[in-house]
Amino acid sequence: MRIAPPFGPTAALAALLFMSACATTSTVPVPANAAIETPDSALPANVKGFSGKWTGTWIHSQTRMDHVLIVQSVTASSAKVIYAWGEPSNNYINIQPGSRTMNGTIKDGVLSLTHPSGATAKYTLKADGTLDGVYTSQGFNSTATLKRSTS
């Protein structure tokens, strides 16, 4: 006698995909002393709006990598940030989780960072309160939508 599982093949595949997606999430290392300064109230909203902790996931083709951006301070044209990343979701790229403090520029509502490797990350504040990110390295783009974090 054969006993059928309590769900069909479609549900089993969906559960497997969900579990594998959960297994690929990583912990992003963020320094414990990541203080955030209150922006000057005289700054325009499209500048001071960058201030705070943001979380999201970089997506490129079949690779995903968790990302945290902590904008510690802003001026009219610059920002000090902690840029942090998790482990990639597959073995196509060999990157260890980490973080670095960086200085960026703010111009025309875009926060731009240039990594030591020459890669760039650009963030734009959206009307819905999220950040759109584009990371460009060696001609390839990854994208992310980051949400403000309260933790």
Molecular structure report:
The chain is 13% helix and 44% strand. It contains two helices and eight strands; from the N terminus they run ααββββββββ. The chain has an eight-stranded antiparallel barrel with strand order 1-2-3-4-5-6-7-8. A hairpin with a 2-residue loop joins β1 (52-60) and β2 (63-74). The termini are far apart.
Q: What portion of the residues fall into strands of 2 or more residues?
A: 35-45%
Q: What general form does the structure show?
A: globular
Please identify the top-level CATH class.
Mainly Beta
Say how many strands there are: 8
Q: From N to C, what is the helix and strand string?
A: HHEEEEEEEE
List the main descriptive attributes of the protein structure presented here:
disordered N terminus; 8-stranded antiparallel beta barrel; 151 residues; Lipocalin; globular
Topology:
Layout: H1 9-23, H2 45-48, E1 52-60, E2 63-74, E3 78-85, E4 98-107, E5 110-114, E6 120-125, E7 131-137, E8 140-149
Antiparallel strand pairs: 1-2, 1-8, 2-3, 3-4, 4-5, 5-6, 6-7, 7-8
What is this structure, in a nutshell?
This protein has 151 residues and is mainly beta.
